[in-house]
Amino acid sequence: LTKRCQRFEQEALLLLEQGLPLDAHFYDCADCREAREAYLRIQSGLRGASETPRPGWEWGRRSWAGAAIAAGTAGVAVAFALTRPRAPAPLSVTAEIVRAERSTLRSSSPQPGDELKLTAVTGGARYAELRVYREDRQLVLRCFPPESAGAISCSRAGDQLQASLRLPSPGAFQALVAASDVPLPAPAPTLAEDTESLLRAGARIAVALPIRAY
Amino acid sequence: MGAEPLDSAQDALAAEALAAAERKDFRAALGLLMRAYGNEVYRFCLGLLHGREAAEDVLQTVFIDAFQALPAYEPRSTLRAWLHGIARHRCLDALKGSRRWATLVEPVSELPERADGTPGTDQLLATSRLSRALEDCLDGLPIHARETVLLRFRSQLSYEEMSVACGEKVGTLRVRVARALPLLRRCLEEKGMSS
Fold first, then answer.
1. Is B1's CB within 8 Å of A52's CB?
2. What is the largest CA-CA distance in chain A?
3. Are A34 and A7 in contact, with CB atoms under 8 Å apart?
4. CA pair distance B61, B77, nearest whole angstrom
5. In this predicted model, what pLDDT tens digit does every residue of B70-114 receive, in sequence order?
6. Chain B residues touching residue A61 (CB < 8 angstroms)
7. Which of A70-79, A185-194, B65-74 has the lowest mean pLDDT?
8. Do the chains contact at A42 and B195, CB–CB below 8 Å?
């Protein structure tokens, strides 16, 4: 049995990490050359991971996370307080896609023309509103029955608020429900400013998982 | 989070973030940090935690921590190093927390076993297998070796940045990396991957 040369692992790896040059042996020795190539592949494999968090992670599954970020330190306290067990009835919003009928082959991803259906539980609040932002900065839907803007449908039944929207273009669509026992402030130009404004006005908010249309 | 910022764009975003923090606009600074480093910190956390949900949870926590710490931020090193330091602590906390993280592990989606005969598919399968084997082997490293290897090769921090993130001497970290790489190579060979 031949034993392979260990010098690359015993000496050269550390020299390379120190940014120092290698001596001639490491270029002449077949085992060392092979080892060097193996480590380059390993390093490349480690670097090559291309996973990304899902779009809208900043607004997260935890409804308080994005709100806290948007609303500043005071918002952090407010949002954490909102998630404590003593918080009033739960507030939630879910989003689902209803596919548009088309005769052509299409991808499995949501596309413009598909319908975004939203269902929110308002936690028994007197005032509640669904809002949808595209790319965090374009308000594309408001639903506060009997008023609405941009919605195919918008209705409230008891504690549930329902709305739907035809996805107008590619992009990330972020829905939120806001609820309060006092009138809600008008929307702000961006999602971040809107959540900040809502929290400052004492409203509670929850956000849905974002939907990305391609 | 949109497209990955190029290094130069990342530097520009970091500079903007620092400028925003200096004028006390911490909300703007945080948004810029998220754009610049969100993906990178996520991958680091994913390498340590191995579950997308777990990594996303920690990612959010990292940036909330960063937001709260920004007013006291002192540029002893780069923002990347500072953020990775926070991420490292948060990931270690999560790992220490309990075995519940194991329940959050999502299997990597399988590529089709039947190749369609094109070299591209073979290449994809090989890359996928190597990638999965590497993740398994990373898991087998002691935690401090794993985080050091990830900071060095996945996040591509300099040793000076790693020193800030880990609170350890540069020399210690260099040795740790040089010792961890052969462990990864052996592990891959044991899995039939002639690295």
1. yes
2. 85
3. no
4. 21
5. 888 887 788 899 999 999 999 988 887 644 333 333 333 333 333
6. 53, 56-57
7. A70-79
8. yes
Q: Which residues contact A192 (CB under 8 A, 6 or more apart)?
A: A69, A70, A136, B27, B31
Token duo for residue A147: 């008023």
Of B26, B46, B134, the CB nearest to A46: B134
Q: Which amino acid is at A34?
A: E
Evaluated on CA atoms B68, B69, B72, B75, the torsion sign reads: negative
Cα B49 from chain centre: 10
Q: How far is A161 from chain B (nearest CA, A)?
A: 28
Tokens for A34, please give them: 């092979």
What are the tens digits of pLDDT across the range A184-212? Answer: 999 988 887 887 788 778 888 887 777 88
Summarised one tens digit per residue, pLDDT across range A143-190 is 999 888 999 999 999 889 999 999 999 988 888 889 998 899 999 888
Would the CB atoms of B188 and A54 count as touching at under 8 Å?
no
Contact A32, A12 (CB under 8 A): yes
Counting every residue written for chain A, the total comes to 214
Per-residue tokens: B133: 């084997």
Interface test with B, best of A31, A42, A59 (most B CBs within 10 A): A42
Which residues in chain A have their CB less than 8 angstroms from residue B169's CB? Answer: none
What is the residue whose two structure tokens read 């084997």? B133
User: What is the residue type of B22?
Assistant: E
Q: Name the DSSP class of B79.
A: H
Instruction: Give the orientation angle of helix A63-82 with respect to helix B52-69, to 10 degrees.
Output: 60
Q: Which residues of B touch A68 (CB under 8 A)?
A: 64, 67
Residues of A in contact with B27 (CB under 8 A): 69-70, 72, 192, 196
